């Protein structure tokens, strides 16, 4: 059986779990969220990504009910949340600092919320045991928070947030306190738990790699607005703006003037006396319009001689090399002074000549190697 791709946002029949409808949030005369509309679907792992102060936490706090929109509506499962207090929403929020109760055991920390809702004892016990199994904490159940590791504490907080089986779990920088290795492991655990429980997760993170790893869709925000929402691959391969291209990963941005050459082909004249770069795009640009080509470093080949038949090729000089183990990034100055980053895998083949500082090299990329952007 063919595996069906999870993409409810492409299904016109799918009903969103969360709907932001023209939501604006002002603090005094400062606009933190600016007329934002966005649907999020059940079972999604939706990541909010953006620079500090762009409004990520404000969106989460409005979902949880700690803040009210100044204008617009937020619906959860079709119900308008206006006036619905946090404890009456099928939402749980795991905060940046997921304070556990230090005097309670892991077991009691997880049981805490369930006791408060007066869940019958046998049901409560079973639920806590389930959560312990899910987060692989069964053998730590009797320990106190200071007797377990940072990653384990993080899992306790997650178990506690999931215990009441919220429809929606909001995670604000949930892995912020973990070191890189543990953080990466925990990302996979989060994905696994999300899949097993079928809970919808909305996560806020500063870390773009994290967002790209865990999310079904990523929303890139800037100043209270969503600039682009797409799958991680689309955000990376088909950014819709210079802002998004620049925010996600490493990218070379070359500015020029557009000249249409075919239905979907453009020449981008980037420097006088040099052949324009050629690119394919579905966007429409006016003749002579200012445009940009965004090219990821790994899409650019570095070679000692001009590659035969290359669609885009330009000669330059290596000014810097960053050795990153499995790959090296070459910084190559091209005519006009622009420095282009090109990434090449380091193979062990001795026959392959390594480049060094001040070498003259050719950079080349294909017709679809770069994205054309209008602004
Ligand atoms: P970070 O990544 O740094 O946590 P963020 O994207 O989560 O940032 P928010 O916390 O949502 O940002 O804040 C968005 C903007 O709204 C910021 O400029 C912040 O200063 C402002 N803001 C947030 N809460 C309030 C408040 N209660 N009163 C006034 N301004 C606020």
UniProtKB/TrEMBL annotation:
Output the GO biological process annotations, alphabetical, semicolon-separated: putrescine transport
Q: What class of enzyme is it?
A: translocase
Family matches, as InterPro entries: AAA+_ATPase, ABC_SmlMolc_Importer, ABC_transporter-like_ATP-bd, ABC_transporter-like_CS, Mo/tungstate-bd_C_term_dom, NA-bd_OB-fold, P-loop_NTPase, PotA-like
Q: Is this entry keyworded Cell membrane?
A: yes
Annotated keywords: ATP-binding, Cell inner membrane, Cell membrane, Membrane, Nucleotide-binding, Translocase, Transport
Please name the GO terms that the record assigns under molecular function: ABC-type polyamine transporter activity; ATP binding; ATP hydrolysis activity
Coiled-coil parts of chain: none
Which Pfam family, giving just one, matches this sequence? ABC_tran
- EC number of the protein: 7.6.2.11
Q: Does the keyword Cell membrane apply?
A: yes
Q: Which reaction does it catalyse?
A: ATP + H2O + polyamine-[polyamine-binding protein]Side 1 = ADP + phosphate + polyamineSide 2 + [polyamine-binding protein]Side 1
Q: Where is the ABC transporter domain?
A: 18-248
Q: Which GO terms describe its cellular component?
A: ATP-binding cassette (ABC) transporter complex
Q: How does it assemble?
A: The complex is composed of two ATP-binding proteins (PotA), two transmembrane proteins (PotB and PotC) and a solute-binding protein (PotD).
UniProt lists the family membership as follows:
Belongs to the ABC transporter superfamily. Spermidine/putrescine importer (TC 3.A.1.11.1) family.
Task performed by this protein: Part of the ABC transporter complex PotABCD involved in spermidine/putrescine import. Responsible for energy coupling to the transport system.
The protein in question is named Spermidine/putrescine import ATP-binding protein PotA
- The species this protein belongs to is Thalassobius vesicularis
What's the encoding gene here?
potA
């Amino acid at each position: 059986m063919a595996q069906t791709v999870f993409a409810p946002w492409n299904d016109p029949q799918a009903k969103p779990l969360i709907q932001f409808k023209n939501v604006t949030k002002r603090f005094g005369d400062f606009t933190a969220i600016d007329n934002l509309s966005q649907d999020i679907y059940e079972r999604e792992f939706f990541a909010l990504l953006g620079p500090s102060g762009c409004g990520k936490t404000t969106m989460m706090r409005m979902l949880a009910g700690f803040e009210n929109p100044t204008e617009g509506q937020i619906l959860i499962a079709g119900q308008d949340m206006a006036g619905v207090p946090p404890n009456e929403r099928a939402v749980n929020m795991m905060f940046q600092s997921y304070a556990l109760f230090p005097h309670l055991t892991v077991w009691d920390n997880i049981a805490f919320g369930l006791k408060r809702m007066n869940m019958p004892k046998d049901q409560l016990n079973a639920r806590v045991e389930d959560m312990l199994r899910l987060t692989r904490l069964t053998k730590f159940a009797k320990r106190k928070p200071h007797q377990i590791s940072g990653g384990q504490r993080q899992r306790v907080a997650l178990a506690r947030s999931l215990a009441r089986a919220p429809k929606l779990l909001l995670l604000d920088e949930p892995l912020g306190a973990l070191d890189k290795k543990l953080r990466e492991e925990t990302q996979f655990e989060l994905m696994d738990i999300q899949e097993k429980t079928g809970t919808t997760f909305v996560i806020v993170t500063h870390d773009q790699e994290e967002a790209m790893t865990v999310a079904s869709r990523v929303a890139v925000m800037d100043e209270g607005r969503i600039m682009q929402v797409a799958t991680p691959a689309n955000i990376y391969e088909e950014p819709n703006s210079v802002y998004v291209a620049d925010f996600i990963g490493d990218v070379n941005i070359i500015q020029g003037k557009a000249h249409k050459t075919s239905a979907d082909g453009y020449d981008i004249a980037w420097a006088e006396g040099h052949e324009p770069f050629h690119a394919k795009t579905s966007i429409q640009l006016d003749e002579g319009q200012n445009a940009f080509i965004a090219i990821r470093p790994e899409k650019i080949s570095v070679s000692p001689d001009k590659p035969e038949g290359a669609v885009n090729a330009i000669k330059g000089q290596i000014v810097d090399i960053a050795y990153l183990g499995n790959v090296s990034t070459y910084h190559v100055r091209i005519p006009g002074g622009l420095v282009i980053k090109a990434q090449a895998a380091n193979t062990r083949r001795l026959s392959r000549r390594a480049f060094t500082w001040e070498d003259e090299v050719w950079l080349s990329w294909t017709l679809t190697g770069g994205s054309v952007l209008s602004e």
